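Hey, can you fold this one?
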Amino acid sequence: MAIIIKNQEQIDGIRASSRLAAETLKYLEQFIKPGIKTIELDRLAEEFMTKHGAKPATKGYKGYKHATCISPNDVVCHGVPNDYELKFGDVVNVDVTTILNGYFGDTCRMYEVGEVSPYAKELMKVTNECLHLGMKECYPGNHLGNIGYVINEHAVKHGYSVVFEFCGHGVGIRFHEDPQVDHVAKKNSGPLLRPGMTFTIEPMINAGKARCKVDRKDGWTARTIDGKLSAQYEHTILITETGCEALTDINGDY
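Sure. Predicted structure:
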């Protein structure tokens, strides 16, 4: 599979889908409170996507049955929505991919459930910084691998580890496209970035060891092997003529 360089029509479609994915996460903010079940958050997210003319890309993907991935505390990614009730002090990641008029938009973010510990706040802060630093490497002519290089450098400097078993990916025309976007990479490695490329950057940063284990019960939920916290933020990125655009950044954070 080759890297797809998108034309303007495709970019417009991916931008619209990406915006809706981000709006879905914004919509969920009001419901992230102690006592709500993750399966209920999943229902609310799917309802919102459907109301706006989209459908969730995860539902039916390789047998997955839900509209979102919801990953609390030590869950790194691909958390399956279930009867778990969010508790005061939890941190939770919600990952959404929309299909709108045939185009895909992919994003995730962390939420605080009530007041969380300084330990959790610092992990989320550094993880968000990792995403931001990776985005600064997104400009024409730069090597793709420099995204993972700066992410790993920043995380390790703060005493954290970067998950290498999961990665970012091309997105837009399909759910998963080339290129693979590693969050640990050698400097000046990988293909050169070109205008019209769209892909996700989605670093998963662990407070402890980098490795994950997948729950045997559901075959999806990936947890830290030591039970320590994990955090993740994700944007869909477009490489432009002069730099990049975060298509899922509706708040202007980047």
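The longest helix spans residues 8-28. Let me know if you want another pass with a different chain boundary.
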